[in-house]
Amino acid sequence: MMKHRTLFSIMALLVCLATVHATAAQLTASMPLGRKFYQTNEKIEISVLRGASEPLAPAILTLKLNGPDGSEMRFDFSVPAVPVSDGKAEAVEHLRLNGRLLRPGDYTAEIQCDGASTQVAFTVCSHVRNTTYKLIHWGGSRNAAMMDEGKDGLGFNVAMGETGEMSIPSGQDVMGSCLMGGGHQHDLKLSNDWSDPNVYIGAIQRGVERAFAFRTMPNAIGAHLHDEPGLTWLPHPRLKGPDGKPMLSPHDIPYQQAAFKRAYNRDMPAFDSLDTTTPEGLAAWREVCEFKLGFMDAFWKASRHVLERLKPSYLAVTQSQYGWTAYHDGYYFNVVRSMPVVCGHGGYNDYWLRNFNPSFFLEMALPRQLDKPTWYLPEWFGMSADAFREEHNLSFISGIQGIATPPGLNAKSPAAPAIAECNRLYARIGTIFEKPAYTRQPLALLYSKSNVEYQHGQNRQPAALAMAYMATRLTQYPINAVLDEDVLDGTVAASHKAVLLVGIEYLDPAVIAGLEAFIRQGGTVLVSADCKVSVRGAKPLEVEATALWDKAQAELKQIPETDQEKLKAETRRVNSFRSIMEYAAPLARSLKSALAAAGIPPAFESDLETICAGRQVRGDIEYIFAVNFTPEAGYGDTSGGYGAPVAAKATIALPDDGRPIYDVVAGKPASFSKKGGKQKATIDFGPGQMMVFARPANPIGGADVAVTGVNRDFTREGDAPIRLELSASLKDSSGKLLSCAAPLQIVIRDPLGTARYDLYRATDGGVL
Fold this sequence. Notes:
Elements: H1 2-24, E1 26-30, E2 37-39, E3 43-52, E4 59-66, E5 72-79, E6 89-98, E7 105-113, E8 116-125, E9 134-138, E10 158-160, E11 173-176, E12 181-182, H2 197-211, E13 220-224, E14 226-227, E15 234-240, E16 246-249, H3 254-264, H4 279-310, E17 315-317, E18 342-345, H5 357-364, E19 374-377, H6 385-396, E20 402-405, H7 416-429, E21 443-447, H8 449-454, H9 461-474, E22 479-483, H10 484-488, H11 491-495, E23 498-501, H12 509-520, E24 524-528, E25 539-541, H13 547-557, H14 564-574, H15 577-597, E26 605-606, E27 611-618, E28 621-628, E29 648-655, E30 662-663, E31 668-669, E32 673-675, E33 678-685, E34 690-696, E35 700-712, E36 722-732, E37 743-749, E38 755-762
Parallel strand pairs: 2-8, 9-10, 9-20, 10-11, 11-13, 12-14, 13-17, 18-19, 19-20, 21-22, 21-23, 23-24, 24-25
Antiparallel strand pairs: 1-3, 3-6, 4-5, 4-7, 7-8, 15-16, 26-29, 27-28, 28-34, 29-33, 30-31, 30-34, 32-33, 35-36, 37-38
């Protein structure tokens, strides 16, 4: 009996010792990036710490990955022995999962080794965005609030300014915002001019340092660098203002003079020593102006180069479009020509053309940058859903590749319903704009560099251009802004039927010669009565573009400042959207008559002037956009002069040329009927609503889809090891290819019937 007790005691002791040995080893797993959410385009790192107070023997480390559908994967790894050092044995094993091989969902990684176990949980999200159209929240929400921002919430797919992890499950890519800073001069100091190498090198260093914080984010696509950069203004050394103090001026800046001296080994001609009414003075001033245009051009080129060294294909963008009028601050078409994307914001709706100011700034900033994507922020202030819808739609119809919403607007804003509405609509149909191919419209509006230089430090043409732009909105004529260079290199002659000149005091002889050659070749040049140039063969418009505007502003100045109540009321009325429409009405009537006489029709005819026309041609399909901008009655007394959008009914007429008409928004044939040689439809528009019609060369027959197969290559680094390769083509009713950009919805289901991808894409040349 004693023998049996002893044997039992020994066995119990062995079990106890085994238990001590088994529990002595410790296993801890962690995610080194400190995230719970990962994407399918990255490696998912797991660190496993083995530890014990005694040496660890060679072992098998087992990783069991439990998937969202009940699936399980098991991996066994040999791990080495670990000796004791400083009283403990420790070693870290680094495990790496390829996110491209994991289905999106929640995962648990169970890890066993040395008789111990641990686990970590994480979530894999798809990196594939459901649309190629960029839907941007500029300076958007933070942290958990981002979950209301993505595809199934407000529909954004880019958060500009947020590095937070919650951007991943919300389905948004991220870009830092204003990583260098903001304001015209760096750090808002007038002494920090972009011509000074110490300034721009320091700005680049700061931008790269801040962009570095994004290096571990799989959804980081680039960096927004600066808001509203511009060459500086300083007190002029000689010119005085009305108060006798030195005049603040962008001319004769010491940093720029020093740069000129380094480049040419001579002094920069002084602004106040030149007379631009003489050929010699104009040539000297042009040399100064063109030299200044190189500063920010070079700065952004260097910025892009550095950022792409940080991360290849990293998109470097900056705000630029607001400054299209600021020629002497370094702005012309070349300012961001080295950037991969043109990004900017507008003149907002609180001045000038009010409701149309954002789209006006956008279109005037587009010339000679039509080969790259444009992302644009139309609004800044809080607004109603109807106002947001209108301003967004008026910018969208220009054919840009991305559109942004300002930081103050979110899921709790009054504009939220329109934000979600616009984002979801653009996600579906904005894909036709993925490949920049801005349509050259029959009518072009000339913004002249030589005219700005002649005005010697002034730029008086933009006010006339604003009235001309408003006139084209009232007459359903889409436009392109063109420059002197477009006349000189033959772009105007090759791509347009008419050019409108307004507010021009001078044109270079070569530009005049180019316009006259355009006329001889059958083109039309229309010249408003405020122009002071003579172009042989041009057709005069007996209207001064800014006459009524100037008259109203002059009358406003006659009101005594002591009568504040009247002054405020009249200021609101004079600068209201309805007044702007009235100021542009005479030019609109004259322009419409002249274009009709020249045989140049509008995009469509409308019995209501407050329907804005857009037109984009993509191969065999012509897209016609109609946006209702009808304002409420009166002069915006309750909205500070803004033209609050209201519903309206309009009859639209399109040419009856045999082509079918489709309602792109509804995805079906549009309800037009033949009347008087036209295809007509009466439409009830909501406030700010946009209708989109597609006119293919022939009726659409359908799409053919071909699956090439599944391509597997597990040697790929940074690319999908398993790829489904397919193609689609759009055919007309006779089975022929429609060579066009057309929006498609693509749903791909896996063998379990789950929709793995639900995508909006567009054909390119009829093929996807």
